[in-house]
Design goal:
Layout lengths: L1 H36 L1
C-alpha cells in the first residue's frame, strides 16, 4: 500500500512537472509566433 502511494505521488509530481514544462514551452512558442507574425 505504501508503494502504491509512492508511485501515485511520483506520477502526480511528474505530471505537474510536465505541465510546468509544457506551459513554459507554450509561452516561448507563442512569444516566437507573435514575433514572426508581427
Amino acid at each position: 500500500m505504501i508503494q502504491v502511494a509512492k508511485i501515485n505521488a511520483y506520477l502526480l509530481s511528474g505530471r505537474l512537472g510536465l505541465n510546468r514544462i509544457n506551459g513554459f514551452l507554450l509561452a516561448c512558442f507563442q512569444q516566437e509566433s507573435t514575433e514572426i507574425f508581427a
